[in-house]
Amino acid sequence: MRSVPTIDLTIGALLEERRVRSVFQPIVDLSTRTVMGLEALARGPAGTTLEFPDRLFAAAREAGRLGDLDMLCFERAVEGALAAPVAPPLLFANGEPGVMDRPRSPWLMDLFAARPPFRTILEYTERALPTVPGSMLRLAGKIQVDGNGIALDDLGADPMSLAFLPILEPEVIKIDMNVIHDPDTEHSRTVAAVVRAEAARTGAVVIAEGIETEEHLATARRLGARWGQGWLFGRPGPIENVRHFDPAGAGVLRRSRPRFHQPVGTPFEVATRSRPARQRVPGDVEAGLIRLRETAIDHDCAVVVVSHPGLAGLLQGLAAPGRAVVLLDQPVGGEFVAAVVGPGFGYAMCVRDSAMVTVDDLPTAAAVSRVLLSHTA
């Protein structure tokens, strides 16, 4: 049988003609198998060189048009959900990490201004976490103003996602398919334990990806997933393929928290809301830094953030595959701040003039880290 020639198409022509289309995959409740929402996946025109997402996004990246493509994909996802015979309660759409600081297009703002009858959940991949943490947090805040939410995608594919999980505190945690397909490795057990603990702490909904068999379904439920997606429930296709949804889907997710990702105040002010400051004495700062460094070294997955160039020496030797290290060029609020956060633990030290506060509870240490990371470029 002769193959049909593939039609050559440039990324410029595709963008000018808005020839991106969305296909949609159902996300279901694992207990009832009712559809709770849809994930939009981008495709180029069928039969062209840019039909599939790997070539599509590679071409945009090479041409310097990644931001344009990412915005178009998001627009097309929302347009498709709005045009559906039955609107889904939840629309999941991916965001490209390298262009998260790009402002929303006027057309996308118009789409959201029309108050869509669904909540949109923006999915971050682990690549966004160490690359553009400031943009990631700022965009999360903007999305939540509209009543929407965020998901952390592919959790477990990279140790960095575990480190950033307490800082991002998403509405949805999506477990990587490799954890579901190979659940008995030490890594998979660690991921499952972290996800269960974080979901219990924050109220996040856990979604298992890549469910293709009944065995995968049983594994996903055993690992703590509430919802799931995969070929067992439906392959990506036209949105018209799904017409029956659980109308309670959007309400299952935690309510939006517009100011959560960018706390008001300086790190010192945030820290002292949970613990009073004290007059520091000689040796306090050094002892605090030693404890912070030891905490980071004791954990494979951690985010270390420091706000003063004078603390650069603290970061030496801390870099590791699952450990992100961020040094701010300028102090935030003129303060001397260092924080370390990871799955189930957190520690922060904030110094303002002669006053000092240290915190070792995860919510406060994560809030201090969010203040610092929000000031990164």
TrEMBL record:
Family annotation (PROSITE patterns): EAL
InterPro entries: Cyclic-di-GMP_PDE-like (IPR050706), EAL_dom (IPR001633), EAL_sf (IPR035919)
Domain EAL: 4-250
Upper taxonomic lineage: Bacteria, Bacillati, Actinomycetota, Actinomycetes, Micromonosporales
A Pfam cross-reference name: EAL
Name of the protein in its database record: EAL domain-containing protein
